Amino acid sequence: MSLRTIGIIGKPHGIRGEVTVRWVTDYPKTFQKGDQLHVGDSGKQLTIESIRQKLAKGKTLTIIKFAELNNPQDAQKYRQAHLLRSQDEGPSLQENQYWLDDLAGCKVYVAGRQVGIVQQVLDLPANVVLVTAMEAKDPSSSVLIPFIETYIKQVDPKNKKIELRQLPQYI
Is 170 inside any structural domain? Predict the structure, then answer.
């Protein structure tokens, strides 16, 4: 079974074992009461008992009560744990859509010539960035390529290939 990270558990919230969750998915509204989420590599599962949004200090927080967590001490044990769900349980993708984490490992090309390999994908506030090991440079170093139309020409995650229009000038 293939699992995908969808969130990270934050601080305990209240006295009933609720936790805040920082989503790392584009589809946070697809979760509902009764859904089971996997916890990191532990093999444990948590069942959503309730889920709600709360506005605090200008930010919207997601607060989840898991059936297995009943007090702040239980909740604290899972702080910073990654929540995962099976790829089969997620929303189906339309044509020309893909998961950002599927881009890791893609070969990067410019004008048909391979120039590097995506090591990691960062979803930053301004835009998504590809952390790329460039073949012409020191293999242990990497460069950041903004995942924006200026640079990205075509994405083919099935064949692990990303074609760039151009390299950023700073490379």
Answer: no
How far apart (Å, rounded) are the C-alpha atoms in residues 129 and 119?
Answer: 11
Radius of gyration of the chain (CA): 19
> pLDDT below 50 — which residues of the chain?
none
Q: Are residues 35 and 81 in the same domain?
A: yes
Per-residue pLDDT at 95 = 75
Q: What is the DSSP string of 28-41?
A: GGG--TT-EEEETT
Regarding whether 69 and 10 lie in a shared domain, the answer is yes
pTM summary value: 0.61
Sign of CA dihedral 68, 65, 77, 28: positive
Does residue 171 lie in a domain region? no
At residue 94, the pLDDT reads 72
- The verdict on 84 and 123 lying in the same domain is no
- Res 169: pLDDT: 79
85 shares its domain with 7: yes
Please enumerate in sequence order all residues whose Cβ is within 8 A of that of 97, keeping only pairs 6 or more positions apart, or say none.
Answer: none
What residues contact 115, with CB distance under 8 A and at least 6 apart? Answer: 108, 109, 134, 135, 136, 164, 167
Phi (first) and psi of residue 158, to 5 degrees: -65, -40
